[in-house]
Amino acid sequence: MPELFARRRLDQPRTPGFRVSIDPEMIGRMSERLARFLGTGKYLFWQTVLVIVWIVLNLTAVSLRWDPYPFILLNLAFSTQAAYAAPLILLAQNRQDNRDRVSLEEDRARATRTKEDTEFLARELAALRLAIGEVATRDYLRSELDRLRTDLDGRRPRKPRPSAEAVRDDHRWAET
């Protein structure tokens, strides 16, 4: 007897003897498929054909009148269809909203990372510009060498360079 009471807890509801295991993801996938199908032209076409056949048979075929003129059975079928379709469509929309929310959060995180990377690269470029300002560039070296050359030329007489006209008129450079 103590074993029976040890298993049952009074602060938790009892589990029923017959349990049905329902996978919410499977129900969600099925509702999305149904919602997609209900929104297609194919579904609307076949439903329209069914309704027309239903009405024509009930108006013309005297022996097959299972739903006379006010078409109460047809209205009941549409009401039942709407009663099931609306919640399934809402379930599909909720699942899509959840996917959109996750996608939006991922996009925001990606945008934040991109912004941080861009700011990092901007800081690195600024640091490189500052570092290059302290490095000897080609133009700086050329100007320093020219200055040294003029200083050295000032100590000894320098042979003047010929002008472009003189080089052009020089017979050593003439074409033969």
Strand portion, in percent?
A: under 5%
> How far apart are the first and last residues' alpha carbons, in Å?
128 Å
Helix fraction, binned, reads over 70%
The profile of the biggest β sheet is: none
Mean pLDDT: 81
In sequence order, what are the helices and strands, one letter per element? HHHHHH
Quick overview:
The protein has helices at residues 2-7, 24-38, 41-60, 72-134, 138-155, 164-169. It is mainly α and 176 residues long. The model has no long low-confidence stretch (mean pLDDT 81).
What's the structural blueprint in terms of helices and strands?
Blueprint (H helix, E strand, L loop, with lengths): L1 H6 L16 H15 L2 H20 L11 H63 L3 H18 L8 H6 L7
Helix pairs in contact: 2-4
Structure description:
With 176 residues, the protein is mainly alpha-helical. The chain has a domain at 23-115. Helices cover 73% and strands 0% of the residues. The chain is built from six helices and no strands. Helix 2 crosses helix 4. It is elongated, with a radius of gyration of 45 Å.
Descriptive key words:
6 helices; mainly alpha; elongated; 0% strand; 176 residues
